[in-house]
Amino acid sequence: MPRSVNAVASRARRKRILDQAKGFYGKRKNVYTVAKNIVEKGMTYSYVGRKLKKREYRQLWIARINAGVREEGITYSQFIHKLNVKGITLDRKVLADLAMNNPESFKALVQSVK
Asked: What is the pLDDT of residues 67-85, one digit of tens each?
């Protein structure tokens, strides 16, 4: 009886890795053993990147809110504290959007909590 090898599955497995390595430079895109390692490393970078993105956006929102409230003569931490005391539950994403794109309503919000 001849040896049975599952060429269809192994070829598909290699093709999947090489498709993920499309656009890489040099051997990274067409040599399976090299591409496998690079794709795996890329996956870990993308996992970490998704976590970092959340941190970076929150940092950006805080900077935008701080810039907006300092024009009104109050600091970021005082503003957030007064929002919590008043029971206003707007998240930082919405507050930053208001500060950037709708400064009149943001100014009114700051005046209401002062």
From this structure: 999 999 999 999 999 999 9
